[in-house]
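thought: user wants a sequence for this fold. calling inverse folding tool.
action: design(structure=
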């Protein structure tokens, strides 16, 4: 039975791969073991909770491939032509929480598009290809991480606070707590006393008075931390109007066409997001031209903020009610990080053939 299922998954993966090849993609291979340093730089230490880690005496710490995007981007930025369309087909490995019934090894088939000509049309091309390939019975949802990023960048607050909100964008609960903290700061008597002492006798004298170092932070790190706390204390709280824009955007749950109207209203309250709203409008036009009904296409302002950490623009997902069958989006920033000085707009997506045939059975 298990052999039959695996054979069915391989056959479905081959079918999907052929569709992408027919769409002009070049088949590309990717290493199974990736440099841990690259993944840690992109995702931070949180990736260790999801990836299998090993050590090689020659190559150092390595991680089994949690997805294909990083090695595909690295390969393209090193040797790819422009524009480029790629497809891939193979296993990925992800650790799951204790008690989870989700697979730790499964097959992904993907399509990636690197093209700087017209990003809106590239978004539409990839989405339309997936919509045509996948069953019409699946539930489709779209979002736009770039819109929320543009709102955060427009907030009238310190670079430190904007960076903190950006860093926790993928953790909705932490993000909401930070937003509340920055809008309604509370008095921390211990911190107030610490900063007062730092102003009175200086950080160096404080550390000397404290005695022997027993923690992991160095003196310079402690100094930088206190400076950051002082900067934070002197930063005015976020205005109620700004917080309202963030929360209104996150709460949008309607069709893509109706969402555009709501976004244009938000633009009136925060003109700095005009460029992102314009990008959204151009994408809807491109989707419409490819036969996608934007008056029926679902859009959620918060979509993509729990599992799509490297996306920075358009995001989409197809589910069968329980499982994510396919997902994807735009990841321009990643190409800049991995491109050693070069960058190119990029968008793509993956399909899980095991989830697809499970839903069809």
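)
observation: tool returned 361 residues.
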């Amino acid at each position: 039975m298990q052999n039959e299922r695996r054979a069915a998954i391989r056959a479905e993966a081959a079918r999907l791969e052929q569709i992408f090849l027919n769409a002009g993609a070049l088949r590309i291979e990717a290493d199974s073991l990736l440099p841990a340093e690259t993944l840690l730089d992109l995702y931070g230490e949180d990736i260790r909770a999801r990836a299998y880690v090993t050590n090689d005496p020659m190559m150092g710490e390595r991680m089994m491939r949690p997805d294909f995007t990083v090695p595909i981007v690295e390969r393209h930025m090193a040797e790819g032509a422009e524009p480029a369309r790629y497809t891939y087909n193979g296993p990925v490995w992800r650790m799951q929480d204790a008690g989870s019934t989700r697979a730790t090894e499964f097959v992904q088939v993907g399509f990636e598009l690197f093209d700087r000509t017209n990003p809106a049309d590239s978004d539409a091309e990839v989405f339309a290809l997936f919509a045509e390939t996948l069953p019409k019975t699946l539930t489709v949802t779209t979002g736009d991480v770039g819109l929320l990023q543009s709102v955060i960048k427009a907030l009238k607050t310190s670079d430190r606070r904007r960076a903190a909100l950006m860093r926790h964008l993928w953790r909705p609960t932490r993000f909401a707590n930070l937003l509340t903290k920055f809008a309604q700061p509370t008095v921390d008597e211990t911190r107030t006393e610490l900063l007062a002492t730092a102003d009175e006798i200086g950080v160096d004298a404080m550390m000397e008075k404290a005695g022997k170092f027993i923690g992991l932070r160095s003196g310079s790190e402690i100094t930088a931390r206190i400076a950051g706390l002082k900067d934070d204390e002197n930063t005015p709280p976020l205005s109620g109007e700004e917080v309202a824009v963030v929360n209104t955007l996150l709460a949008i749950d309607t069709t893509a066409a109706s969402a555009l109207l709501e976004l244009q209203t938000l633009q009136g309250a925060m003109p700095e997001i005009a460029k992102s709203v314009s990008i959204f409008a151009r994408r809807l036009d491109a989707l419409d031209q490819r036969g996608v009904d934007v008056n029926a296409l679902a859009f959620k302002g918060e979509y993509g903020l729990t599992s799509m950490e490297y996306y920075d623009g358009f995001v989409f997902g197809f589910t069968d009610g329980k499982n994510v069958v396919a997902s994807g989006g735009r990841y321009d920033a990643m190409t800049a990080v991995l491109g050693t000085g070069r960058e190119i707009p990029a968008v793509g997506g993956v399909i899980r053939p095991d989830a697809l045939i499970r839903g069809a059975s």
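thought: summarizing for user.
answer: Here is the designed sequence. Residues 1-137+324-361 form a domain with the BirA Bifunctional Protein; domain 2 fold (CATH 3.30.930.10).
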